[in-house]
Amino acid sequence: MKHVTVIGSGTMGNGIAHVFALYEHSVTLVDIDEASLQRGMTTIDKNLARQVDKGVIDASRKALALSHITTTTSLDAGTSTADLVVEAASEQIDTKLNIFKQIDKSAPAHAILASNTSSISITRIASVTKRPSQVIGMHFMNPVPVMKLVEVIRGYQTSDEVTAKIMALAKALDKIPVEANDYPGFVSNRILMPMINEAICTLHEGVAGVAEIDEVMKLGMAHPMGPLQLADFIGLDVCLAIMNVLNTGFGNQKYAPCPLLVNMVMAGNLGSKSGQGFYKYVQGSKELMVADRFRK
């Protein structure tokens, strides 16, 4: 799998492209416009520079990694010679289905089609292609260059051979792959998102404040980041989308998203990316400040 195409140059997509390029794969990064691609490449450059500063890689390896990445706004052209396509678009089922319909037509017959989805059914995605045995989940963790885990999700028809190739590939990227079967939320988000949702309900019901809830989980459960701060980091819109997948997929009320989460997303308070969620984010400041609405 020498040529890898990554679809989407946002936080996850540029991180995935970064890692593949660092390990000397030829990478094509695809997005809908040049501005998005430029932002993605700027982020990759900064993150590689951070690795140089920390002594993880040297400057020559950074330059080599950047030379392995090309960009395009054409999905057809970007996938026409790919051995592996990794979709990292927004966590919306219709968006993903449309992408997979198109890349199934444009990618070579031997190509493996992977999705970085954190919750959407791989079997459902594979069903719109003519190669369901070659469709698999490759769920990287954020930030991709740092986090070791790759959740490898087998769809109902994913072949043993494709699964073995992706497991081996993840190891070759110095990641630790963990195999999971295709059920809503897989392993990571089936466990994580209900915890985050329960933390939001705990705040919504007035049991404790934002900082207090996060402090309990950090000090009492040894979490490096509290669940409300983590929700802000992930994006509250993403958290809501995953809870909706769990709620629909299992048909169980325990997965219903907290009304406070729904209201915050509708209001545009999406966490760190919007400047405000449970905490307030000021550019250039590292101080963690509880959002005005949740201050006592």
In a nutshell, what does this entry contain?
The protein has 12 helices and 10 strands.
Please tell me about this protein's structure:
- The protein has 296 residues and is of the alpha/beta class.
- The protein has two domains: 179 residues, NAD(P)-binding Rossmann-like Domain (Rossmann fold), CATH 3.40.50.720; 106 residues, N-(1-d-carboxylethyl)-l-norvaline Dehydrogenase, domain 2 (Orthogonal Bundle).
- The protein is built from twelve helices and ten strands.
- The strands form two sheets. The chain has an eight-stranded mixed beta sheet with strand order 3-2-1-4-5-6-7-8, sandwiched between helices. Strands 9-10 form a two-stranded antiparallel sheet.
- The longest helix has 20 residues.
- The radius of gyration is 19 Å and the shape is globular.
